[in-house]
Amino acid sequence: EVQLVESGGGSVQPGGSLRLSCAASGFIFSSYWMHWIRQVPGKGLVWVSRINEDGSSANYADSVKGRFTISRDNAKNTLYLQMNSLRDEDTAIYYCARNTHVWGQGTMVTVSS
Amino acid sequence: QSVLTQPPSASATPGQGVSMSCSGSTSNIGNYSVNWYQQLPGTAPKLLMYSNNQRPSGVPDRFSGSKSGTSASLAISGLQSEDEADYYCASWDDSLNGWLFGGGTKLTVL
């Protein structure tokens, strides 16, 4: 069974950092683009970033460019999102997704003083 | 500005059919395929349709998708109470160099 499990969410003050992880299982992780998408509770979906199969190429939404870094460890079947200089508006549920088709259950990030 | 526009709400009674639209531009829907997602209350989004009109395994054929020019549509026939959810369209966008989601349509089954 294809499964994506996010972790690493929590509460952090503005300006702080957090690293999210997404553990993948049930498929050949190294064969797929992977994405992070976020959603403020009660609001719509917003794409954050994507990374190619071997980690050599990544794209970011303008709102996070220069602050967030996506990476992956294919040996560990794990996707990461390093989030620095966090802002109040980064508060959201963060989902990882395989090819935008299969989604995890999400992890909540709250940025507040 | 790149935007995918969806009506905020739709409603119908059980057994009826309903259609929801997703309007974009040449930088997204006009040149790329559309995915549709269903998000039931309190759960993660689930892929409902990909490549405009392809249903993933397990999605009932009551759901259908189409695309014409810079717009796409999702149709649901034989509406059931469990179809009450938020529905989002999405497409790659050249201007953003990233994926773009619509604002979502909240479907109410009366």
Relative strand content of chain B:
over 45%
Radius of gyration of chain A: 13 Å
Total of DSSP H or I helical runs spanning 4+ residues of chain B: 0
Rg for CA atoms of chain B: 13 Å
Largest sheet of chain B: 6 strands, mixed
Helicity level of chain B: under 10%
Average pLDDT taken over every residue of chain A:
97
Most extensive interface between two protein chains, with residue counts: A-B, 19 and 20 residues
Dominant shape of chain A = globular
Strand-and-helix sequence of chain B, N→C? Answer: EEEEEEEEE
Written as H for each helix and E for each strand, in order along the chain, the element string of chain A is EEEEEEEEEEE
Distance between the termini of chain B: 35 Å
> End-to-end distance of chain A, in Å?
40 Å
**Weakly predicted, low-confidence segments of chain A:** none
What profile does the largest beta sheet of chain A have?
7 strands, mixed
- Beta-strand portion of chain A reads over 45%
Structural class of chain A: mainly beta
Uncertain runs of chain B with pLDDT below 50, 5 residues or more?
Answer: none
Mean residue pLDDT of chain B: 96
Q: Give the helix level of chain A as a range of percent.
A: under 10%
Strand segment count of chain B = 9
Q: Can you describe this structure?
A:
- The complex is a heterodimer of chains A (113) and B (110).
- Chain A is 0% helix and 51% strand.
- In chain A, the strands form two sheets. In chain A, strands 2, 4, 5, 6, 9, 10 and 11 form a seven-stranded mixed beta sheet that branches. A four-stranded antiparallel beta sheet of chain A has the order 1-3-8-7, with no helix packed on it.
- Chain A has strands spanning 3-7, 10-12, 18-25, 34-39, 45-51, 58-60, 68-73, 78-83, 92-98, 102-103, 107-111.
- The radius of gyration of chain A is 13 Å and the shape is globular.
- In chain B, strands 1, 3, 4, 7, 8 and 9 form a six-stranded mixed beta sheet that branches.
- In chain B, a hairpin with a 6-residue loop joins strand 3 and strand 4.
- Classes of the chains: A mainly beta (113), B mainly beta (110).
- The A-B interface holds A 35, 37, 44-47, 50, 59-62, 95, 100-106 and B 35, 37, 43-47, 50, 56, 88, 90, 96-104.
